[in-house]
Design a protein that fits this description.
With 496 residues, the protein is mainly alpha-helical. 64% of the residues lie in helices and 3% in strands. The N and C termini lie far apart (68 Å). The model has no long low-confidence stretch (mean pLDDT 93). The chain binds zinc ion (ZN).
Length: 496
C-alpha cells in the first residue's frame, strides 16, 4: 500500500471515531443538563449503541492493517512530526481497544449510564444503600477489564504508575499535612463569612460569565449551563460546553467552579483545529487537562492581582453583600484554609488530601481489599485520620463525587497531578514572561494564555504527558513548585 494513501486512510478513520465520540459526548452533556428524568432508559440505550459502534470502528481489523503498514515507514522517522505522533497514538489506542470485548464495552456504557442516575438520587437522599448494588456492579466490570490499578491508571494518564503516584502522594502528605495544621492554628484568621452572604444567583451567573470572557473563553464557540455536578464536554471544534452551579448563599462556590471549568474550556478552545479529529489535535492527557483548570482556578483566580481587577466589579454587582468589605479581607477570605467534607469546595492546601483519600480507597476497592458495603465506614475513618473531621452523612461522604458511578476508577489521581503540573507550568510561564501581577491587575490575561497556547494547547499529543511537562517547564513532574508556592502564599496571608 502506498504510504500516503495508508496515512490518509488512518486519518479518515480517526476522524470517524472522534465524530462518534463527540455524538456520545453531546448526549451525555444533555443527560446531565436538560434531559427529562423519563429519558434515562432510552439515553442508556443510545449511549450503549454509540459505545458499541465506537468500539467496532476502533478495533476494525482493517484499521490495524493500515497502522501496521505505517508504523515502521519513513513517516515515523522524526518522532515529533504530526504524522509520527498520530501513528504512535493510533497504535496505542488500537492496542488498548482490541484488548476489550465488544459486549463488555456495551455493558459498561449501559450500566454506568444507569448507575449515574441512581447515584444522583442516592446522593440527594444521602442513601448509600440505594447506590451500593450499582457500585458493586461497576467495580466487578472494571475488575473484569483489568485486575490491576496500574492498568486503570494507564487509561487516564499513560506512563504514570501506581508506585510513582504513591511516592508523589507521600511527599505531598509529608509537606502539606503540617502546613494545613499550622494554618488551622494560626492566630491571624480570615472571615470566609463574607462569601456566604446573599448573592443573587442571576447576578452571579452574569458576573461569572463576564469573568470567563475576560480570561479568554470564547462564547461564540462555547456555552456555560447549570448542573448539580459541574463538568466540561469536548463536543468538537467550535463547540465547548461547560457547566457550573450557583448557590444563593455562596459566592466562592460559583466563581471558582466556573473558573475551573473555564480552564478546561480554554484548553479545548486552544487545540489546533487543523488537526481536529486526530491525536495531534487532542489534549495530552487528563492530568494536563486538569492542570489547565487548576491553574485558572487557583493560581490566577485566587491571586491578589486577579481580585485587584475584579473586586471593584464584584462590589458594584453585589452592593449589599460586599458593602463593608475591602480588597485584602476579601482576598484573605477566598483563600481561607479549613478542613471540609466536600472535595470541590476544598481550599488549595487541603485539596490534595481529599484526593489522597480517594486514591487509597479506590485502589482498595479495585484490588478487593475493601468491600463496597464497607466504603462509608472506611471513608469516615480516612477523613478523621487525614483531616480530623467526620461527615454526618454519605451525601457529604462517599456519595459526593460521580466518578465511580461513571466507572472512572483511576481518575482521581489526575486531579493532584494536575495541581503539580499547574504549579510547574505557571512558574515556567513567569520565568519566560516575567511576573503576571501587573497584567492581571489590569484585567489582561493574554500573556499567560498565549504562553499556554504555544507550550501546551497547540502541542496536542505531540509529547506523552510527562514529556510535555518536561519540555514546557524544563523538569519532569515535580511536586516542589506546588509545595513552595503554597508555603509562600499562605505563609504571607496567615503570618506564619
Ligand atoms: Zn477539572
Amino acid at each position: 500500500m502506498d504510504v500516503r494513501i495508508a496515512y490518509q486512510e488512518m486519518i479518515r478513520r480517526s476522524r470517524e471515531i472522534v465524530l462518534l465520540a463527540s455524538c456520545a459526548e453531546l448526549l451525555a452533556w444533555d443527560e446531565d443538563t436538560y434531559m427529562p428524568p423519563g429519558g434515562v432508559e432510552n439515553r442508556a440505550r443510545q449511549l450503549a449503541y454509540l459505545a458499541g459502534l465506537q468500539h467496532d470502528r476502533s478495533t476494525d481489523a482493517h484499521l490495524g492493517d493500515v497502522i501496521d503498514e505505517l508504523k515502521d515507514r519513513e513517516l515515523v522517522r522524526d518522532p515529533l512530526a504530526p504524522e509520527a505522533v498520530n501513528i504512535r497514538e493510533m497504535l496505542r489506542s488500537f492496542k488498548r481497544h482490541t484488548r476489550l470485548p465488544r459486549e463488555l464495552v456495551e455493558e459498561t456504557a449501559r450500566v454506568s449510564s444507569l448507575a449515574q442516575h441512581e447515584w444522583a438520587v442516592a446522593r440527594q437522599d444521602a442513601d448509600f444503600q440505594r447506590f451500593l448494588p450499582w457500585l458493586a456492579r461497576i467495580i466487578s466490570l472494571n475488575g473484569g477489564t483489568a485486575k490491576l490499578y496500574d492498568a486503570l491508571l494507564e487509561d487516564f494518564e499513560p506512563g504514570m504508575t501506581d508506585a510513582g503516584l504513591a511516592r508523589l502522594f507521600d511527599e505531598l502528605r509529608r509537606e502539606l499535612t503540617p502546613l494545613a495544621t499550622a494554618l488551622t492554628q494560626a492566630r491571624r484568621r480570615p472571615n470566609p463569612g463574607v462569601l456566604r452572604r446573599d448573592y443573587p444567583v442571576e447576578r452571579q451567573r452574569l458576573f461569572n460569565e463576564s469573568v470567563a470572557e475576560a480570561v479568554g473563553f470564547d462564547f461564540n464557540c462555547g456555552r456555560i449551563d447549570a448542573t448539580t455536578h459541574p463538568f466540561f464536554s469536548t463536543i468538537g471544534p467550535g463547540d465547548t460546553r461547560l457547566t457550573t452551579r450557583h448557590h444563593p448563599a455562596s459566592f466562592g462556590d460559583g466563581v471558582f467552579v466556573t473558573l475551573h471549568e473555564v480552564g478546561h474550556g480554554l484548553y479545548d478552545q486552544g487545540l489546533d483545529p487543523d488537526h481536529a479529529g486526530t491525536p495531534m489535535g487532542d489534549a495530552a492527557s487528563l492530568a494536563v487537562h486538569e492542570s489547565q483548570a487548576r491553574l485558572w482556578e487557583n493560581l490566577v483566580g485566587r491571586s491578589r492581582a486577579f481580585w485587584k481587577h475584579f473586586f471593584p466589579r464584584a462590589r458594584r454587582t453585589f452592593r449589599t453583600a460586599l458593602a463593608d468589605v475591602a480588597l485584602d479581607p476579601f482576598y484573605f477570605a477566598v483563600n481561607a484554609v479549613e478542613p471540609t467534607f466536600i472535595r470541590v469546595q476544598a481550599d488549595e492546601v487541603t485539596y490534595n488530601l481529599h484526593i489522597l483519600i480517594r486514591f487509597e480507597l479506590e485502589r482498595a476497592l479495585i484490588t478487593e481489599e475493601l468491600k463496597p458495603a464497607d466504603l462509608p465506614d472506611a471513608w469516615s475513618r480516612a477523613y478523621r485520620h487525614h483531616l480530623g473531621i467526620t461527615p454526618a452523612n454519605d451525601a457529604d461522604g462517599c456519595l459526593q463525587d460521580g466518578h465511580w458511578a461513571a466507572g472512572q476508577f483511576g481518575y482521581f489521581p489526575t486531579y493532584t497531578l494536575g495541581n503539580v503540573y499547574a504549579a510547574q507550568l505557571f512558574a515556567a510561564a513567569e520565568r519566560a514572561c516575567g511576573s503576571f501581577d501587573e497584567a492581571f491587575a489590569r484585567g489582561d490575561f493574554s500573556g499567560l494564555l498565549g504562553w499556554l497556547r504555544a507550550h501546551v494547547h497547540r502541542e496536542g499529543m505531540r509529547y506523552p504527558a510527562v514529556r510535555l511537562i518536561e519540555h514546557a517547564t524544563g523538569s519532569p513532574p515535580d511536586p516542589r513548585p506546588l509545595v513552595e508556592g503554597l508555603r509562600r502564599k499562605y505563609g504571607e496571608l496567615y503570618g506564619i
